[in-house]
Amino acid sequence: MLARLLPAILLTFALAGCATVTNTVPADRIASFKLESVTVGFADGARIWWGDGERAFAATKGIAAQDAESVANTPEAQAYLRKAISDRLRAALEKRLKGELTGSHPVRLVVRVKDLQISSAIQRIIVGGAHHLKADVDLVDARTGQLILAFPEQTAIAMAGQGIGGTMLDQALLPDPLDRVINNFADGYGNWLLQK
Asked: Is the pTM of this model over 0.85?
């Protein structure tokens, strides 16, 4: 029972967290912004749990998938995971916002990932779970470096198939879980910033 309720509970917390952050920038000022760049980094102590990424790194070293954990916490593995995550998150935010922020005032997004969890197939079969991403997002004036608008601890969730059948369907029919949660994050931020 708890396994079935966990995704709903996580979604409730995520939505509750989003509701407490208000976008105070007037819509006409937002319309004057032009997205110049997106920078993605990681907060001190950031937690990353992404088994597929660990296995992909292990494969680059000729290590079998079942032994991926043996190298997952090395500095090289962590750099590999962080680069893959930051590249995808940067691309998703640029895709979401470049066509919307086309004014003349250059701005940058500075993202600090704090927590990323991609629930494994085994976890979802046994206890359930969803995928989530939490990060701080700052909108900064590209000329002066001054903070315009902060969204601390923005959280996005991507639901995942539960149990044996749901997990099999999820993996067969849906896009990569990391891409799903990152796209949800980018859409959520874009909708919040543009007040949609």
From this structure: no
